């Protein structure tokens, strides 16, 4: 923490459903001198994607969706070239869709007005530009793809994604600290801002994805809530084992190359062990060693905290003891 100037850090380690380590360090709020606790709510940023993926796979299990269905079956007025984009392509970032924030139309709009756009308007920015490659041909991380997944889930369920997630995951698992909302949202007990040290002194850092980015990066949670999710996941209470196998299988491209990404989960190897997880905003990381039934969660309030290095170091201790 001292080396990377991290104000606050929360670490939780699970093994076979038991808590091996639940440690909190430093300050959730520098301004108000509030210490980090296991109920401190952090912005998860892209760690959100594992929850979006889980909900989509649950809809598949329920027979409401198929991974090989085209996105144009659910969203109209899209280019003909998008007919070839399957739900699976959105989940594993092989859709070829250009991120909306990289398009000319998006960058022509004043920053203050970008938050006011509807998700349909935002997706149209990507639809107005050609695909970067044929669906399934290559891999390119797509925030916009996960926004589209949210729209599809809402179309199928007839509910907002926030309500769907609450009914499907958060309420059954008693995840009372978990809620969607960007930096502008008023979230009870979210006393941890995100900071940056890139300009010298500490400054606040805002993830400006807006409400439309809910399914890509909009989740806020605590280690105590994430613990409940991973215990249930490890015990097979959220998804069937076959679904988890599918979700956590690396993506194979047509040229035979393997991408270290499944359906919403990074698939990596560390010290001879396979781990599944995700990074979020340069400040958070979660890793799940499925075979070892080991989960490591590292949440911080500094973008650029190198949480990936911290989480692998913590994992090393428990993998060798």
Describe this structure in words.
- This protein has eleven helices and 14 strands.
- It is α+β, with helices and mostly antiparallel strands.
- A seven-stranded antiparallel sheet has the order 3-2-1-14-13-12-11, sandwiched between helices. It has a three-stranded antiparallel sheet with strand order 4-8-5. It has a two-stranded antiparallel sheet with strand order 6-7.
- A hairpin with a 4-residue loop joins β2 (18-29) and β3 (34-35).
- The protein is globular and about 50 Å long.
Distance between the termini: 23 Å
So, the CATH homologous superfamily? DD-peptidase/beta-lactamase superfamily
- Overall tally of domains: 1
Number of helical runs?
Answer: 11
Low-confidence stretches: none
Question: Over all CA atoms, what is the radius of gyration?
Answer: 19 Å
User: How many DSSP-defined strands?
Assistant: 14
- Neighbour order of strands in the largest sheet: 3-2-1-14-13-12-11
> What is the C-level CATH assignment?
Alpha Beta
Please estimate the helix content. Answer: 25-40%
CATH architecture verdict: 3-Layer(aba) Sandwich
The biggest sheet, with number of strands, parallel, antiparallel or mixed sense and barrel status, is: 7 strands, antiparallel
Question: Structural class per helix/strand content?
Answer: alpha+beta
Order of helices and strands: EEEEHHHHHHHEEEHEHHEEEEEEH
